[in-house]
Amino acid sequence: MNTQQIIDAIDLTDTVEELVEAKNFTGIVEAVTPLSTEQVTALLERLPIEQRAIVYRLLPKDNAIEVFERFSPALQRDLIQGLRDGEVATIFSDLDPDDRVWLLDELPAALAPRLLHGLSTKDRQLTSEVLGYPKGSVGRRMTPEYVSTRTDATVGEALQRVHAQLDDAETVYTLPVLDGSRHLIGVVSLRDLLRSASEVGISEIMQDVSAMTAYETAEAAARRCAELGFLALPIVDREDRLVGMLTIDDAARILEHEETEDAARQGGVEPLRRPYLATPVRSLVSSRIVWLLVLAIGATLTVQVLSVFEATLEQVTVLALFMPLMIGTGGNTGNQAATTVTRALALGDVRPKDVWKVLLRELGVGMSLGALLGLLGGVVTTVIYDPSVGLIIGLTLLAVCTMAATIGGIMPMIARALRADPAVFSNPFISTFVDAAGLIVYFMIAQAVLHL
């Protein structure tokens, strides 16, 4: 599916909206039927909630389930609110257990028991197993529907199990190898099974495996799955017994969700969890207003600093001209460091215990940047004004860059150590703190140089 095909589907939005308004259901079917699943998903994401439910009802059942699975959990919740109970029960029963849990995490608590009650005994048991793990853990995102084999089995016996469970299993490309107590011993790929003779023992072709416990974070497991290039990552309990598999498509979905969340919070907003045009205006407002209030309160620190050094400004008014430079340079330097370290934490390049290494590196980076900017700023200011002002600007840029880079580098690591989201402690808070601290440094250097 290329970008142009998605654009073509989106271009139908106005046409479909007009057909819905006119209650021309035949026209809607004719417009939507030629579209692929990806195109239908892109189209529905742009429709208002009420119209989305109407168009969704007109989709063929198989296509409807595929489209529903492509929606974000928040969009799935919105759609369910516009469907009848019978339609909701059908959709819910057709989902995989891990996808049901994604949805249940979004739905009102009172609705979850009703949906679970409508499942078959087997489906309810599988879903309850996944629901039993803590929120945010990989146990809540794994699938319990997989095909396993035994160490004492043959290739032929393993392939028979694959054929027998082909319709029920969510993944068959990687088979975990278990002992008699369901402890994970290794894995064997479907490719290796197909190219081996049926009488060959599984123990002869299986490979060692890297597994994660069900209680570790979903993000950590998803990154491990992606880094190792696994089609499915085995998930075990605390006794190394296999309890599920994290598939690569679910890993990609988790990483997309986490990176979207981090990017939003680094920009001072809460993640939308829906496509932009499918997000109500009130949700856009609520995602931004809290951060704006927090930052506005933080900005009062800057006002307080200016009031303390008001007399200094009155004596040397030229200092006011360079305040935006100091504030901007410090904020940008801190944000650069915070963004770099937050990303390194997410990728596993650094860990909270590396805080001193990061501090020393960012201290060196900040001093180097400050020296270069300070030299340039000091020379230019000396030429335009006088040497004393140039010295103030040069020394302040050196100090502010060093301080901002160091603080920006260690704050995300402190946040991770406190089990908080590093993105929350990144750009917005660092900018506010560095603005106030930078001005204090600026005026203190000015007072020292000018003997005020």
TrEMBL record:
PROSITE patterns membership: CBS
Classification via Pfam families: CBS, MgtE, MgtE_N
Main location group: membrane
Entry GO terms, CC: plasma membrane
Top-rank taxon: Bacteria
Signal sequence interval, chain numbering: none
Keyword Repressor applies: no
Key words of the record: CBS domain, Cell membrane, Magnesium, Membrane, Metal-binding, Transmembrane, Transmembrane helix, Transport
Topology within the bilayer: Multi-pass membrane protein
Organism: Corynebacterium glyciniphilum AJ 3170
Residue span, CBS domain: 142-204, 205-261
Cross-referenced InterPro entries: CBS_dom, CBS_dom_sf, Mg_transptr_MgtE_intracell_dom, MgtE_N_sf, MgtE_transporter, SLC41_membr_dom, SLC41_membr_dom_sf
Protein task: Acts as a magnesium transporter.
Protein name (Swiss-Prot/TrEMBL): Magnesium transporter MgtE
Subunit composition and interactions: Homodimer.
Subcellular location: Cell membrane; Membrane
Molecular function as annotated in GO: magnesium ion transmembrane transporter activity; metal ion binding
Family statement drawn from the similarity comment of this UniProt entry: Belongs to the SLC41A transporter family.
Transmembrane segments: 289-309, 363-385, 391-415, 427-450
